[in-house]
Specification:
With 136 residues, the protein is mainly α. Helices cover 83% and strands 0% of the residues.
Amino acid sequence: MSAVDLAALVCAVLALAAAGALTLAASRMFGAAADLAEARERFDAEATPAVAELRAIVANAGAEVERIDELLHVAGTIGDRVDAATEVTYRALTSPVIKGVALATGTRRVARRLRGDVDEPDRPGIRESRPTSRAR
């Protein structure tokens, strides 16, 4: 056997070993691809219903947000109406109440003066102010 025959034999053995290694790698890659395809099918089987449920939940949440927004708008409108009614009531009652209190105070003072109780003040702890420049 010559050196060329020996080199050819070594190259043939190496080529055979490389072909075997490539065949083994290819079979493992096909196995991994099959496992990946199975995992994808399981993922699709679980993810598709989950995504559908998630979409339904999101749609429901969106409807609830719109409902709450409408309720807040109604509550704001009611609050504005209550504020307006309070303001109108305040304006309508303030002046008559003040005038009524003033009338009651004046009537009480006149009644005391007519009875001769001029020295007693209207309220305890408050002295009645008497004009100094006017004659009684």
